[in-house]
Amino acid sequence: MNLKGKSMAETNNTSGAGTPEQTNNTNGVPEQTSNTSGATGAPEEEHHHHHHHHRSTAPIHEMHKVQRRIKHRMKHLKKWQITAALVITAALLVFAGFSVQKYREKKRTEAELAAWYAANGLDADSARNGASGVGSAESAQNTGEIDYGPLSNNNFSDQLAMRRLQPFANKDVLYNGQHYTRNTAVKAVLLLGLDRTKDDLQQIRPELWEQGQTDFMLLIAHNTFHNTVEILQIPRDTMAAMKAVTYEGQKISDTVEQITLAFSYGDGVYKSCELTCDAVTRLLGGLPMDHYMLTDLRSINTVNDMVGGVTVTIPEDNAVWNDPAFVKGQKITLHGGQAEHFVRGRDKSDDFSSLVRMEHQKIYLQALQPRIKACIKNDPEFLDDLFDAVDADILSDMSKKDYVKLAASMVNTAQLHDSDFRMLPGEARMGEVWLEYIPRYADINEIVLDMFYRKTE
Fold first, then answer.
1. Average pLDDT score over residue span 362-368
2. Which residues in 133-211 belong to E strands, given as ranges?
3. Nearest to residue 453, comparing CAs of 169, 235, 189, 227?
4. Count of CB atoms within 10 A of residue 29's CB?
């Protein structure tokens, strides 16, 4: 049944009088009363044989006027009642939604606190007594807020990584007594460089190498209002909690491994990107990724040649590169496969060389930016042509129009300097077999607040 159609038909009859036929007469009197003699329907011959007076129609007209006036008022009264009911209903729905959101935030906060207490060997009673500086956060929670500052430290263990507090899952955050809110003009875009070579991954996870791994991760803070960018470099060996899933996407468990392996647990395409975004979000305390963009590292050679080569200064000696053209301190214009060699080359005899390689990536991006800018000046369509050339090597949840716009923002901003790059806070150490980059959560929180939040009080 069409309830909407039925409702409209009912509300169109606004007179309140019986049938539609009866209400068509504009004087408000039923059709049968239209006899001009003023009689009440008596046979005409009675009119000729009886000499009684004609009844006056004035009282009837007055009655009809009153009826019409009452109907008019009732009509407007109904409209007012309906409007009031809708307003009250909408207000109740908004209040209910707000209450549900606050309740969920409170329950999530309570769960986070319980997990944090357990991970740090505390119970709620000791926390209330101020152990390890938790007391202020506990009292803040009782007022409906939680101050995440006193809860943050730079300790690390697999258990702490699994139970990492997620303050930045919230739009508004209280941190060390200061209120912050998410700066919605700043978008978090995760850039991933894909490596599908066997190398280290086949040694670490022989069964997963076909899916590939992310050889570099750059989190771009793209300020869409000021058209500026900041870049957070995330070492591929950062130890992070992640979802371990089968190839079909069935979750096995959560695990703590080098963040480069999060991609390997997926399907090699979209699911792998989603798993990587999830791992980065958990690492950064709940900061959601607005977008991601994955590119095969081999495409860097195409980009390099389309801009006519990129000139860099070689920062390390030949042991890193195993290439006679790469001499420490020399300027060289990279062509062909030299670009990929430069951004990926490292001394494999040095367990910490993957961190040195991140410096090469920064040097290359700083040198690439002015080359692309010069090409756009000569040909405004250059960026479109560039992305057409590498389109097969790009995977993103953004449209091509959007990631071309992002690239244009990165190119057209002021020259990238060292101050525009930040390294994820942490320390590198050798694990049982492989390098492990240990994150410092409290320092990471400060960077996230600085890059993606703004003070409100």
1. 94
2. 172-175, 178-182, 186-195
3. 169
4. 16
Tell me if 388 is assigned to some domain.
no
Rg (CA), the chain: 36
Could you give the number of structural domains in the chain? Answer: 2
Which of 146, 172, 191 terminates a domain? The answer is 146
Q: What is the pLDDT of residue 276?
A: 95
**What is the full DSSP assignment across 343-380?**
HH---TTSTTHHHHHHHHHHHHHHHHHHHHHHHHHH-T
Domain co-membership, 192 together with 217:
yes
Question: Starting from the edge strand earliest in sequence, which strands make up the sheet with 172-175, in order?
Answer: 172-175, 178-182, 453-455
Same domain? For 133 and 175 the reply is no
Residue-level pLDDT at 1: 40
For residues 216 and 447, give the distance between their C-alpha atoms in angstroms, rounded to a whole number.
19
- Residue pLDDT, tens place only, 244-276: 876 566 667 789 999 999 998 888 888 889 999
Q: What would the DSSP string read from start to end of 302-330? A: HHHHHTT-EEEE--S-HHHH--TT--TT-
Residue 166 and residue 120 in one domain: no
Q: What's the rounded mean pLDDT across residues 118-143?
A: 41
Tell me, yes or no, whether 306 lies in a domain. Answer: no
Amino acid, res. 57: T
pLDDT of 387 > 90? The answer is: yes
The full DSSP string for 125-143 is HHHHTTGGG-HHHHHHHHT
| Amino acid code (one letter) for 295 | T
pLDDT digits (tens, 9 = 90+) for 316-352: 776 566 678 888 899 999 998 899 888 887 766 666 7
Check residue 271 and give its pLDDT: 87
Its pTM stands at 0.69
Q: Are residues 213 and 234 in the same domain?
A: yes
Token pair recorded at residue 112: 């986070």
Cβ neighbours of residue 443 under 8 Å, at least 6 residues apart? Answer: 154, 425
**Residue 120 domain boundaries:** 64-146
